[in-house]
Design goal:
Elements: E1 2-5, H1 12-21, E2 25-26, E3 31-32, E4 37-40, H2 51-63, E5 67-69, H3 73-82, H4 98-111, H5 116-126, E6 131-133, E7 138-140, H6 146-152, H7 167-170, H8 176-186, E8 189-191, E9 198-199, E10 205-206, E11 208-210, H9 221-224, H10 229-232, E12 254-256, E13 272-274, E14 276-277, E15 291-296, E16 308-311
Parallel strand pairs: 1-4, 4-5, 7-12, 12-13
Antiparallel strand pairs: 1-15, 2-3, 6-7, 8-11, 9-10, 14-15, 15-16
Length: about 300
Amino acid sequence: MFDLIGDIHGHAKPLRQLLEKLGYQHDGDCWAHPDRKVIFLGDFIDRGPHQVEVVEIARSMVEKGHAFAIMGNHEFNAIAWATVDEISADTFLRPHTEKNLKQHREFLDQVGENTTQHHEMIEWFKTLPVFLEFDDFRVVHACWHPEHLETLQPHMDQDNQFLSSSWQQIAKKGNDVFDAAEVILKGLEIPLPGGYEFKDKDQVPRTNIRTRWWLTSAKTYQDIAMVSEEVKSQIPEQAIQSHALPGYDDEKPVFIGHYWLTGTPAPLTKHVICLDYSIAAQDENKPGNGKLCAYRWDGCHELSSDNFVWVS
């Protein structure tokens, strides 16, 4: 059986506490459980105080067979930040702008940019699969979108890892492969109708909304928008087109991270669970709001609130 753990963002102390709560023990070398394995949902880095330790814990567990892990958008961004653009050798696949540096600076400071440790971590990030599919459930960082997964398939190996030869295409805007990776790792966004916009938590005007892509019966932009309650009134109640969302087939449960949820952990639907409950909220000057959250998979097709475990 498995214990699925959501976005950690450099918070090693809550990770150790959660592993202990789940019954894992450290043998002096690695965290392990006699009967269970962890599945990490990505986003190990950026924001938190102990990012190197978080990566070391996860990597050790994966390499010693006690865990699986998938790629999050922050690992994707870290690879692109560190990878030279072959067309323009003095630039990188993720531009070194002030905005991008602000998001990534804590990791670079903690790991030491361009050190051996930094390069080793980037190489490990490259080994992380984009998704996992088991007999009974699926795991992806942000969005299970069959059409975009099909677009990415020629750029992945049999273990769902991005091919080294494809990074120059995957991480550069302006092609369908980049667009597909954006949806799978960062979520499905759609534009608001003409003339509408809203302001995000940083008061930046936005004309696209991140969607509740798994819904099959949503009718309006307000229904599908993943925004805070205080922003919701800025989203129009205008009808969306029927093909705007992929929906979810419910063939088997799917576990995601990424979305900075709050409150008491609960399934989004009977077959969809998000395990990102904003452990990094204290980094946003909201102390006490965040949780590091896990789900104890018990083999049941219908997901239950009873299986959540978390530390605050």
